Amino acid sequence: MRIFRHLYDKVLNWSHHRHAPYYLAGVSFAESSFFPIPPDVMLIPMVLSKPLKAWNFATITTISSILGGILGYLIGYYGFELLGEPLVKAFGYEESYARIVSWFAHYGFWAVLLAGFTPIPYKMFTLAAGATQMALFPFVIASILGRGIRFFVVAGIVLYVGKRLEPVIVRYIDAIGWATVLLVVLAGLAYWLFC
Q1: Is the pLDDT of residue 189 over 70?
Q2: Do 57 and 155 form a contact (C-beta atoms < 8 A)?
Q3: Where are the chain's structural domains?
Q4: Most-buried pick from 9, 54, 57, 88 (CB within 10 A)?
Q5: Can the keyword Nucleotide-binding be found in this entry's annotation (predicted)?
Q6: Per-residue pLDDT, 194
Q7: d(Cα 8, Cα 186) in Å, to the nearest integer?
Q8: From CA 37, how far away is CA 79, in angstroms rounded?
Q9: What pTM does this model have?
Q10: Spatial contact of 112 and 125, defined as CB atoms under 8 Å apart
C-alpha cells in the first residue's frame, strides 16, 4: 500500500499553496494546546519546497507554537477540569500527563524547555504548566527556547540535507512510514508490558 507516498504528495502540495504559511501557523498554534498532529509535517515540506524561506517558516512555527502554548497554559490554569482533563483523556495521555506533573514538581522550567525534544506531545506540558500553576513568565521563556531550538534545528537540517535526501525519502517513503508505525506499536507494547 502506498498510503504514505499519497500523504507525502498531498502535504507537499499544501506547502505550495499561497496560504501555506497561514496553515503552518494554524497547525503550530493548535498543536500546542489541543491538536494531535505536530507542525513538522508541514514545516519540513515547506522548507523543501521553498528553501530560501526556511528561517521564516521556522519563525512562524515557533511564534505560533508559543502562542498556542499560552492558550494550553491558560486552559490548564483556569479550566483544567472542564477542558484540559477531557483533552488528556480523549487522546489517551493520562499516564504521560501524570509523568509530566511529577517532572514539574522536580524540574519546572527545565521540563518545559526540554518538552520540545521529547516524544510526549507539547500540549501535555502546556496543560500541566497551567494546571500546576507554574509562573507564566518562566513558562514563556522556556517555551521560546525549547520550541525555537527544535523548529530552527528541523528547518536547518532540512535546508542543508533535505534536497539530497528527498529522492531517497520519496523512493522509500512507504517503507519508512510503515517502519515508523511498527516502531511506535512496539514501543507502546514494550511500555505497556514493562512499565
Answers
A1: no
A2: yes
A3: 3-163
A4: 57
A5: no
A6: 65
A7: 24
A8: 23
A9: 0.74
A10: yes
